[in-house]
Design brief:
single chain, 442 residues, alpha+beta, 22 strands, ten-stranded antiparallel sheet
Length: 442
C-alpha cells in the first residue's frame, strides 16, 4: 500500500469504486496489487457495497449535482436530461438514468431508465429496462444478461390533473397512475397497477387514493373497496360547479344518471359481495350500447373524446395522446371476456407522411364467468407511418398495381414471448384488398 496526499472527493470515490484505492485512517491508499490483475478487480465494483456506494457518489458529483433518487429500493443515477444537455427548452423533457437494484441476495441488477415529462397537464412516463446482473461477493450468476434471466421491464405513466385541494362540495381527482411490469423470458407473472390519486367526491372529509392491482393485491377485493368507498363519498347531494364531473364519475360505477348504464345494485352488493359486482360488470361490458355509454362518461370525466371502443386524451396539448380502450369478446366457452387497454401514441406530420410511435398493452383479460384474470397478455412498441396527403385517400404508397395505407414496425410480447411486428395496413395489390398483411414471417 502507498499513502497518497489528500485527493478531491470525486477522484477518491472513483479510485475506491475501481478498486485502485482503499480506505485507510480516514484517507485513501493506493493498492499496488491492483495492477497485477486489473480486470478481475474491476468486475467487483458493483457487487461490493462499499465500492458501489463510492461509484454512486462519484456519478452524483459529476453528473447529478450531488443527488440521486431511490424508488422501491432501486437507486436511480442521473446521466443526462436532453433539454439541459442541449440548453434548448424546446426539446422534449427527456431524462436518462442508470438503475442499480441491490435487493437480490446474489447479484446487483444494472439497468437503464428513461422518463418523459410534459406540462398542462403534468405527465410523467417512465420505461425501465434491466440489462446486466453483477454477482455479489462469493456469489455467482448463471445468466448475467438480465433480459434473458427473467429481468422485469416496467412501463409506467402518471398524469396530474390538479394540485390544489377541492372544496368540500366539489369533485376532485389529483391524478392517475398506471404501471405495467412484464418479463421477456421466465421471471414473475406480468402485472399491472392502477391508482386513482386524490379522488374526492362532494361530502367527503378528505381525498383518498384508490389502488387496483399491484403485487400481492387481489384485484376483485380492490375493486370492491373502490366501489364501496365511492358509495360512501357520494352520500351527500350533488351540487356546485363540479356536478357534471361528479355525475360522470358516479355513472362509471352505475351510481349516476348516465343514460344507458345499468344501475349498480348497491344493496345486493353490500349483502352478497363481489358476485353482484361481477354481474353488473357483465351487464355493462357485454352490451354494446351500455359499453359505449360507459366510455362516454369516462371521456367526460377525463376531458377526452369517446369513440366506439376507446377514449382519446391529448396530453399536455402536444403530440402525445393516451388511448383508453375496452375490448369485449366471447370466449370459446361462451363466456364474456373483457380486455382493458392502454396506448400512448406519438404522432407528427412530415410532408405527406404521418410518422409516429405507439406503446400499448392489454392490461388484463378478465373472464367474467370464473373471475380469472390474466394480466398483461399482450404488449407492443411500434413505429408507424401513415399517409396524410391529399392524393388517393392519403395512401402511404400509391402505384399502379400496389396501394399501401400504413406501416407498423416494432416488437410485441405475447404471453411473455417476444415477436416481431411487421405489418402493412389497407393494402390493395392488383385489385385484391387486404386489411392487414403480416410480414413478420414467411
Amino acid at each position: 500500500m502507498t499513502t497518497l496526499p489528500t485527493l478531491d472527493p470525486e477522484i477518491a470515490d472513483l479510485g475506491l469504486a475501481l478498486g485502485l484505492l482503499t480506505t485507510s485512517n480516514g484517507g485513501v491508499e493506493l493498492d499496488s496489487s491492483w495492477f497485477q490483475d486489473p480486470g478481475a478487480r474491476l468486475t467487483g465494483t458493483l457487487g461490493d457495497d462499499a465500492r458501489r456506494s463510492a461509484l454512486v457518489r462519484f456519478v452524483d458529483a459529476v453528473l447529478a449535482q450531488g443527488e440521486h433518487s431511490e424508488q422501491d429500493g432501486v437507486t436511480y443515477l442521473h446521466l443526462f436530461n436532453l433539454r439541459e444537455l442541449a440548453s434548448d427548452s424546446s426539446l422534449p423533457d427527456l431524462t436518462v438514468q442508470a438503475t442499480l437494484d441491490a435487493r437480490p441476495s446474489a447479484y446487483v441488477e444494472v439497468g437503464l431508465a428513461a422518463s418523459l415529462g410534459t406540462t398542462a397537464p403534468d405527465t410523467s412516463t417512465q420505461v425501465a429496462i434491466p440489462l446486466y446482473r453483477a454477482a455479489k461477493a462469493n456469489q455467482s450468476v448463471a445468466q448475467p444478461f438480465a433480459l434473458l434471466a427473467g429481468g422485469v421491464i416496467r412501463v409506467g405513466t402518471e398524469l396530474t390533473f390538479q394540485t390544489t385541494p377541492p372544496a368540500t362540495d366539489e369533485f376532485g381527482l389529483t391524478g392517475v397512475e398506471v404501471a405495467v411490469e412484464t418479463a421477456l423470458v421466465g421471471g414473475p407473472a406480468p402485472s399491472f397497477r392502477l391508482v386513482l390519486k386524490g379522488l374526492h367526491l362532494p361530502g367527503a372529509a378528505a381525498p383518498s387514493d384508490f389502488a387496483v392491482g399491484g403485487p400481492g393485491v387481489a384485484i376483485e377485493d380492490a375493486l370492491l373497496s373502490l366501489v364501496l368507498g365511492l358509495v360512501r363519498q357520494s352520500a351527500e347531494a350533488l351540487a356546485g360547479p363540479a356536478a357534471d364531473q361528479v355525475q360522470a364519475a358516479l355513472s362509471l360505477l352505475g351510481l349516476g344518471d348516465g343514460a344507458g348504464i345499468p344501475p349498480l345494485p348497491v344493496d345486493d352488493l353490500l349483502e352478497h359481495g363481489v358476485d353482484e359486482l361481477r354481474d353488473w360488470f357483465v351487464a355493462v361490458m357485454g352490451e354494446t350500447t351500455a359499453r359505449a355509454a360507459w366510455l362516454s362518461s369516462l371521456a367526460s370525466l377525463v376531458g377526452g373524446v369517446a369513440s366506439a371502443d376507446h377514449v382519446d386524451v391529448v396530453l399536455g396539448g402536444g403530440p402525445v395522446t393516451a388511448r383508453i380502450g375496452i375490448r369485449a369478446a366471447t370466449a370459446p366457452s361462451g363466456h364474456l371476456t373483457v380486455t382493458p387497454q392502454l396506448t400512448l401514441i406519438l404522432s407528427a406530420v412530415s410532408g405527406s407522411v404521418r410518422i409516429g410511435a405507439e406503446a400499448s398493452a392489454d392490461l388484463a383479460v378478465i373472464d367474467t364467468a370464473t373471475g380469472a384474470i390474466v394480466p398483461v397478455p399482450h404488449s407492443e412498441v411500434v413505429v408507424t407511418a401513415v399517409g396524410s396527403g391529399a392524393d388517393t385517400a392519403a395512401k402511404l404508397l400509391h402505384t399502379g398495381p400496389l396501394d399501401i395505407g400504413a406501416l407498423r414496425l416494432g416488437l410485441a410480447i405475447d404471453a411473455g414471448a417476444p415477436t416481431a411486428v411487421i405489418q402493412l395496413l389497407e393494402v390493395d395489390f392488383e385489385g385484391h384488398p387486404y386489411d392487414v398483411l403480416d410480414l413478420s414471417s414467411p
